[in-house]
Amino acid sequence: MFRRSWRHTAAVATVALLALSSVTACGDDSSDAKDLSENRAGAMENYAAGTQFKATEPLSFSVLYNNHPNYPLKNDWLFWKELTARTNVTLEPVAVPLSDYNQKRSLLIGAGDAPLLIPKTYPPDVHAYVSSGAILPVSDYLDLMPNLKDKIEKWNLKPELDTLRQADGKFYLLPGVHEKPWHEYSLVVRTDILDELGLEIPKTWDELYTVLKAMKAKYPDVYPFSDRYSQPNPAGNLLNLLAVSHGLEGAGWNFQHVSWNAGAQKFEYTAATEHYRHVLEYLNKLVAEKLLDPESFTQTDDLARQKLANSKSFVISGNAQALVNDYRPDLAATNPKAKITKIPLPVGPAGEINPASRLENGMMISSKARDSKNFVAMMQFVDWLWYSDEGQMFARWGVEGTTYVKDATGKAGLAEDVDMIGLNPGAPKHLQKDFGFANGVFAYGGRPELVQAFFSAEEQEFQKVMNARTPKSPPPPYPLTDEEREQVSLWETPLKDHVYQATLQFALGQRDLAQWDAYVTELKSKNMDAYLDTVNKAYERYRDEHK
Amino acid sequence: MVSIEAAEPATAPTPEPRRRRRGIQQTRGYRVFQVVNAIILTAVVVVTLYPFVNIVARSMSHEAYIIAGQVNLVPRGFTLDTYQLVLSDSMFWTNYRNTVFYTVTATLISIVMTTCYAYVLSKKDLKGRSALVGIAVFTMFFTGGLIPNYVLVTSLGLKNSVWAIALPNAINVFNLLVMKAFFESLPNDLEEAAAVDGLNTYGILWRIVLPLSKAIVATMVLFYAVAFWNSWFAAFLYLDRQELWPVTIYLRNLIAGATGAENIGAISEANEVQAEATLKAVTIVLTTLPILLVYPFVQRYFVRGIMLGAVKG
Hints:
Chain A: Keywords: Signal. Chain A: This is Sugar ABC transporter substrate-binding protein. Helix content of chain A is 41%, strand content 13%. With 547 residues, chain A is an alpha/beta fold. Chain B is built from 16 helices and no strands.
């Protein structure tokens, strides 16, 4: 027993370590990076944006496959068949359970055994692999990807892509790209209580305070706001929402050590800014006036759900899924008269912004692919399936006439016998389970019509409100070198721990906010200034090199 | 009891009854002890059983009641939908069959290897014995690490086969040492007598030692079977196709999916939603049930076996 669990813990550490060390030695000398004459087998001569990609000979590429339990991999999916028919490419999935996808990915890359295509990778995960040389610097090959280039230009994605760049100025991830930012999480509010009290849906954080106060006046023995998402970090979502509304990069479960200060043209330590202080003051006020349940910072999600279901609270964090899958069914069972909705993100001092990023998880490519004679064809294939309008449409909706139909205006809708998220209840077949479309591995990003294709009407309404707001501009890039990254990662954990601890103390009133300066001094003693120095130097270095 | 107490003063003077009197007092204390003991043990039973009963009740309850925290010992809003959801999936059965197959194969291999190794190590006059023990114990504290192991297993061509699960974990050193201690405790004269009667080493092991070691073998079978039944990590590392996965991975993945760590940005179906709260319970019931059923049958060996191995000085 002892040995088993020990080995398991060690395994995780080993993966992280070995992923960093150099494993494969097929480095790309920039001199021969551009010479692709040996790698054009199967590629199209005149492939361009809008062209249907079809390899000139049958090809197959291995792909790491994130196996989702809701639609487990099937070899007879129409997706595979139709993909081969259209592109002459067969994908060979290496199935990995979703539960432990990242770990297996690290293992395979570390062991030099990774498939050519490695999708479902989130931007920060890339850092660990860059120095090993096992991952292809895809930014060198954007010329092979006309659809992606087209979208970068049309949607003005360059600032976002720049944030992906490493110290060598290249990026190693082909991210999912959205035309519009997609913000998911906000607060969920019992509207029947608002109606009962004659209140409007709160638009700002200050209005939320007023609403909570009114709720408390009517129901003195309830905490009107009892939040979830507090594990492993306290009030993960609430802190993040408040921080981004104050113009910071993120806090809570999206904790970002540094935030860009456009006025001063430099990075500041997020949790030491005046903005963060205001966030804490706000939380402290809610707790002190018993509007926010102090257990919000520690309780489990289930407990928070129970409180909401039993009308022991009226406000909670959530996204569309939590609303439809958790809160509504819970309340339907305990209190059929209750009405609940997700309100647009309350506005803070940063004004009406949409804080979401337009990038999401994307794909890494093994550098061994560069040596394949089919390399160019593979890049064209990736460009078509993940970035062309036709490819995205195919991956999400499937085949016209079989899985979807278009109405007179050209708007797509599910075929009658195909179901997806209960849009065609009782239909015998399922778009994901039986056909393999709308699969998280292949379908993401794109135009809002596509991204929101399967959203409920109320979620589309929510997105409409959020999209009317100004998208938050991404911070300038500050790519760190390997040594710098290693150094800052040593500082990060103690800093973060201290921030979480102090956040909790300040919010709960265990520590007086008058001690703010002392708190900042404590952060300084944990190398906050050195951290900022490193980041700001990296920013200036990149800025000067890329004027 | 009352009459005995009444007799006390009369029998007090002589030493013999005094001893008996002490015995009487002990009996009284013993009765008290029995009552207290029964209460404490009942409490232990309740504390141990409660989670099991609760899990079974949850597995048959409607999710709304679980979320509302109203399910204790009896299912509320009785439904078997989640069982149906899990059991109706052919992949579940495929993976379940894999688990049974892997467990049986791996346990067989393990028990043979461990027995042979342990028996050899129990021979005090064996040359290089301490080196052999050292080699085994060394692996308790040091491993090659994850990636070297992976590379080794892959280049031996074991990937995507039962051998990747059975062979690298065939000998558990802790089990090996327990078994070694057990064999050392067997009287040497027996084996000498057998040798005099003409049995060779294998004959002694097969006809004399093993029949006397049923207890420890049963214990080891249980240890190994439970470990292999519950294991998922080796399978996760070395098996790249879902039709090869054991049921532990299937269920682990199912829970990860239901708890919504990752969804495609749309709302999943209402009938899947129901699964979330009850799913964990159903999962636990279905995976633990078979291995729980094994316990009662091996238990008497289990207790004796582990004692015999451990007490050896």
